[in-house]
Design goal:
Subunit structure (chain B): The complex is composed of two ATP-binding proteins (NikD and NikE), two transmembrane proteins (NikB and NikC) and a solute-binding protein (NikA).
Protein name (chain B): Nickel import system permease protein NikB
Strand content of chain B: under 5%
Order of helices and strands of chain A: EEEHEEHEHHHHEHEHEEHHH
Number of strands of chain B: 0
Shape of chain B: globular
CATH architecture of chain A: 3-Layer(aba) Sandwich
Oligomer: heterodimer
Number of helices of chain B: 14
GO molecular function (chain B): nickel cation transmembrane transporter activity
Largest sheet of chain A: 6 strands, mixed
CATH class of the domain at 96-275 in chain B: Mainly Alpha
Family (chain B): Belongs to the binding-protein-dependent transport system permease family. OppBC subfamily.
Main location (chain B): membrane
Number of helices of chain A: 11
CATH superfamily of the domain at 96-275 in chain B: MetI-like
């Protein structure tokens, strides 16, 4: 199915120890090199938990079992130091809450230098020139953004700076967790265009987590549908849209927003007058 | 920059208002409280002074004039940096205070260092190991510190470290060793609140999205804790420090008496006993001044810790 697998999640299961509840189970997911894969489902279906399991960012009271192979290494089994090296330099993540993408009281430039120098041995100036280059590539005014705090920029700019930050580390996989949800439509589209560009240019893979079915149809190569902690369907966007098998996918597709016909709007307006 | 200037300007106005109100109220209160420095001066060694002697001295110190006139004259002199003369020692008040101020500031700084070390270490320990044994130790240290009166702790420290182990000097000032016990006593008395506050704040900061993002970037644990989380948790501590400067100066007085530390606390206690009005008045003025200046530094520190305030997005 997937020609050359970059990351492969096998039988992932997450349980909450405090509530003694199974949060996600039997999650099997594969992302090939250079692929944009969508993981869709409603809020609380377990999409973000899956991503956080890869990043090992789950709260301590959650227990994870199963295997997550990244380039053949089980990320759940490596020691914290090795995993830390993997993060950033191998797997980057963009979060939904852009205000939380950067520490608010440290300038974006300094945080970029800090991150780059954590993963690569180089001088401050070398790191700075990399930071300025990737900011420029993201269509940002590199010098201004470099010298700004995150609260001085718009949501779209911060998200692009966050992408620039992970790009600076040359990742093989970028996980985007509802990255456009908090943005307005135009900014969201622009950010997604940049993700497309990066994939085409660098050949990295993208896991796009979203509840927006339309976005997933438009932007992904392959999709997984998640419901109540389980993956219920997998396939190409057209397959999911037109030939879905699972009742939940059917329900999800039927909820897809369609613009009302012109006539019905005019009618409504006439009544209200 | 504009924000910084406006903070400085508003604090300076505040300083003027506070110092005038404070000095006037204490001036009046001192005059109406029982006790009389003139009688204290005359009644030495059971020699009974006559009414005439009393009147003569009162006239000399201008105590016979209305309170408002006395206050007016005093404040005019203050504007020329003249705080008057001590009734008892006849020395200029400003000289008496200035000679003792460095000792008090040195002791307070020592106390601050101990306070800083204790609250950062135990506060961080409690937050990072939340619910585990280091957290319990941190809680016990805070509880113990809060329940031991500082003068008793000072006595205990003197007993063990000076008398029994003979490691540190009992009292006085001079070498670095003299700083150790008074600084520890002062720091331990203030630390519990800060330990608890830092712990609570750090726990919530460690769960904030920007810390999660820093972890996702693969930064080291130490870097995230000290450069991102700890700095993000400092604001309430700075606020509390600004609010507690008054009580800190009160606490220093107790410690100075206990360790015979030749600072302002010792001076003020003996002056109050002898009703040495000019010294008390001068002391209150200087302390009021110090409190406002420290609050100004605290406000400027906010700008360093949280640049959002500079943008006017948050208020001080």
């Amino acid at each position: 199915m997937v020609k050359s697998s970059l990351i492969s999640i096998q039988d992932l299961r997450i349980t909450s120890q405090s509530a003694e509840k199974v949060l996600i189970s039997n999650v099997n997911l594969e992302i090939g090199k250079g692929e944009i894969v969508g993981l869709i489902g409603e809020s609380g279906s377990g999409k973000s938990l899956t991503a956080r399991a890869v990043m090992r960012l789950l709260p301590p009271d959650m227990k994870v079992s199963g295997k997550i192979f990244y380039k053949g290494t089980d990320v759940l089994a490596v020691n914290p130091k090795e995993h830390r090296h993997l993060l950033g330099s191998g797997i980057g993540m963009i979060f939904q809450d852009y205000r939380g993408s950067f520490t608010p009281f440290i300038k974006i430039g300094n945080q970029m230098i800090e991150t780059i120098r954590t993963h690569y041995k180089m001088t401050k100036n070398e790191a700075k020139s990399i930071a300025l280059t990737v900011l420029e590539e993201m269509g940002l005014e590199s010098k201004r953004v470099y010298d700004s705090y995150s609260f001085q920029l718009s949501g779209g700019q911060v998200q692009r700076a966050a992408i620039a930050m992970s790009l600076a580390l040359k990742p093989d996989l970028i996980i985007c967790d509802e990255m456009t949800t908090a943005l307005d439509v135009m900014s969201g589209e622009r950010v997604l265009d940049y993700i497309d560009q990066i994939r085409n240019k660098t050949g990295c893979s993208v896991l796009m987590i979203t509840h927006d079915l339309a976005l997933a149809y438009k932007r992904t190569d392959r999709m997984y549908v998640m419901n109540q902690g389980e993956i219920v369907e997998e396939g190409l966007p057209e397959q999911i849209r037109c030939h879905h098998k699972h009742p939940y996918t059917k329900k999800l597709c039927s909820c897809l927003l369609a613009l009302p016909a012109k006539k019905s709007i005019q009618k409504k307006r006439a009544y209200s007058v | 920059m504009r924000k910084t200037l406006s903070i400085v300007a508003s604090r300076l106005v505040q300083l003027l208002i506070m110092v005038s109100v404070l000095s006037f109220v204490t001036f009046v209160l001192m005059k109406v409280t029982p006790g009389d420095p003139i009688r204290d001066l005359l009644n030495v060694d059971d020699v009974v002074a006559t009414k005439a002697d009393e009147e003569k001295l009162k006239k000399e110190y201008e105590f016979d004039q209305p309170i408002l006139v006395q206050y007016g004259k005093w404040i005019l002199n203050v504007m020329h940096f003249d705080l008057g003369e001590s009734i008892i020692s006849k020395r200029p008040v400003i000289e008496m205070i200035v000679s003792r101020l460095p000792a008090t500031i040195a002791l307070t700084t020592g106390g601050m260092v101990v306070l800083f070390l204790l609250s950062i270490s135990f506060g961080t320990l409690g937050a990072v190991y939340e619910g585990r044994w280091p957290d319990f130790i941190s809680r016990w240290v805070a509880m113990l510190g809060a329940s031991i009166p500082s003068f008793w702790l000072g006595l205990l420290l003197i007993y063990f470290f000076s008398l029994k182990l003979n490691l540190l000097p009992v009292m006085g000032k001079g070498t670095l060793a003299h700083f150790v016990l008074p600084s520890i006593t002062l720091g331990v008395a203030m630390a519990p609140m800060y330990i608890r506050l830092l712990r609570e704040r750090l726990i919530s900061t460690l769960q904030s999205p920007y810390i999660e993002a820093a972890r996702a970037r693969g930064l080291t644990k130490e870097r995230i804790l000290f450069l991102h989380a700890l700095r993000g948790s400092l604001i309430p501590l700075i606020t509390m420090f600004g609010l507690s400067i008054g009580s800190l100066i009160g606490g220093v007085t107790v410690i100075e008496i206990l360790f015979s530390w030749p600072g302002m606390g010792e001076l003020i206690v003996s002056s109050v006993k002898q009703r040495d009005y000019p010294v008390i008045q001068g002391y209150i003025l200087i302390v009021g001044f110090l409190v406002v200046i420290t609050n100004l530094i605290v406000d400027l520190l906010y700008l360093v810790v949280n640049p959002q305030i500079k943008q006017g997005k948050e208020t001080v």
